[in-house]
């Protein structure tokens, strides 16, 4: 259903592997909105890939760049923004997301997230001896924060990207 009319911004939140980047891009196309990904924006502004930023500036440096990107991107109109999984950690980011768009939490179990991320070396927080345990820890800390900002929670564990997109479009048509 490309060109569907749904007003405003959609912001995607959730853990690494939830599908924010993949589903966000497809949603933007279907809803005729411009797609942004805060990680891509940070990489473009910095001129370095995410693992390099973590290596040189640590997570603290990355979070600072992320906060700047979220503050700017949430001021745009008619966009879909895929955030990074840790974007909800800063209260200021949560306020920007809540204030400026409709927030969708893509939810999945740590086991499912592990299956989707285990072959990808570009997530510094998962380059540990036990990434499954790390995902479970992050889930425990962040799930309440995702729920705090979310207007809509979508369970993605049993859904392909395409069936998820169709479900999401139906929900968004109804609720926005
Ligand atoms: N609902 C889904 N079912 C199966 N695989 C998925 C689903 N959503 C995303 N994926 C896959 O998981 C991986 C991570 O997706 P990505 O969009 O990068 O997640 P995020 O941006 O939330 O970290 C990609 O390989 C993507 O194709
Ligand atoms: O969860 C996190 O803290 C992070 C998630 C990543 O984005 P995705 O959620 O798109 O993988 C990226 O921002 C960075 O590696 C940190
Ligand atoms: Mg992503």
Write a structural description.
The chain is α/β, with parallel strands linked by helices and 176 residues long. It has seven helices and five strands. Strands 2-3-1-4-5 form a five-stranded parallel sheet, with helices on both faces. Helix 2 packs across helix 3. The mean pLDDT is 96. Bound molecules: adenosine-5'-diphosphate, shikimate-3-phosphate (S3P) and magnesium ion. The site of shikimate-3-phosphate has 11 residues, from helix 1. Catalyzes the specific phosphorylation of the 3-hydroxyl group of shikimic acid using ATP as a cosubstrate.
Question: Could you say which small molecules are bound to this protein?
Answer: adenosine-5'-diphosphate, shikimate-3-phosphate, magnesium ion
Q: What is the overall silhouette?
A: globular
Beta-sheet strand percentage?
5-15%
Helix/strand/pairing category: alpha/beta
Q: Which blocks of ≥5 consecutive residues have pLDDT under 50?
A: none
What gyration radius follows from the Cα positions, in whole Å? Answer: 15 Å
What name is given to the CATH topology?
A: Rossmann fold
Provide the number of structural domains: 1
Largest sheet geometry: 5 strands, parallel
Architecture, according to CATH? 3-Layer(aba) Sandwich
Total beta strand runs: 5
Q: Report the total helices.
A: 7
CATH class: Alpha Beta
Terminal Cα span? 16 Å
């Amino acid at each position: 259903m490309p060109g569907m009319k749904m007003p405003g911004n959609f912001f995607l939140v959730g853990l690494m592997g939830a599908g924010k980047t993949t589903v966000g891009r497809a949603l933007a196309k279907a809803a005729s909105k411009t797609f942004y990904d805060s990680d891509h924006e940070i990489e473009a502004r910095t001129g370095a890939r995410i693992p390099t930023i973590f290596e040189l500036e640590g997570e603290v440096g990355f979070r600072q760049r992320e906060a700047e990107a979220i503050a700017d991107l949430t001021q745009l109109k008619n966009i879909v923004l895929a955030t990074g999984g840790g974007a909800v950690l800063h209260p200021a980011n949560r306020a920007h997301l809540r204030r400026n768009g409709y927030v969708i939490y893509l939810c999945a179990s740590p086991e499912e997230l592990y299956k989707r991320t285990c072959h990808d070396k570009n997530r510094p927080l998962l380059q540990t001896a036990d990434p499954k345990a790390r995902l479970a820890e992050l889930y425990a800390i962040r799930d309440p924060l995702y729920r705090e900002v979310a207007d809509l929670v979508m369970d993605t564990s049993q859904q392909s990207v395409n069936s998820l997109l169709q479900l999401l479009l139906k929900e968004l048509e109804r609720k926005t």
